[in-house]
Amino acid sequence: MTKEIWINLPVKDINKAVTFFTQMGFTLNERNPVTETMASFFIGEKKLVLMLFRDDVLSGFSGSNIADTNLGNEVLFSLDAESRQEVDEMLLNAENAGGTIYAKGGEKDGWMYGGGFIDLDGHRWSLLHMDFSKMPN
Predict the structure, then answer these.
(1) 134 or 98: which carries more pLDDT confidence?
(2) Helix, strand or coil for residue 17?
């Protein structure tokens, strides 16, 4: 059975992407060295693996073209936050690291608080804090 799942993400510049995701607070995966074509991070307590590959390398692995994030998105990554403050801090970190905020922090349905950013390569990330004690029945 499957032991792990890895997110394989195309990036144009590995070094810029490493700087961005380090500033976001992701943990560099020391098992994989940073090279000119790849880098790896852990995300969250369960240490989901994020693999960054230069566009041409990922295109070769996947056997298809890389999606043009200027035209649309193939996926939305959602990260759970411990608090509203953490959502706002991560949005600020993304902006300070060169990302773009597409949704400022705000409340939804009285029990969720979230926002979103776009990384340096146009991939969208959603941040969400859910207070289940306020969730309607």
Answers:
(1) 98
(2) helix
CA–CA separation, 51 vs 71, rounded Å? 23
pTM for the whole structure: 0.89
Give percent of the chain above pLDDT 90. Answer: 85
The two three-digit tokens of residue 8, written as one number: 């394989």
User: Domains plus CATH for the chain?
Assistant: 1-61 (3.30.720.120), 74-137 (3.10.180.10)
Task: End-to-end CA distance of the chain: give it in Å, rounded.
Answer: 35
Token output for 117 = 């950013």
Q: What would the two tokens of residue 108 be?
A: 């939804």
- Alpha-carbon gap, residue 133 to 59, rounded angstroms: 44
E-strand stretches of the chain: 6-11, 27-28, 38-43, 48-54, 76-80, 100-108, 112-118, 124-130
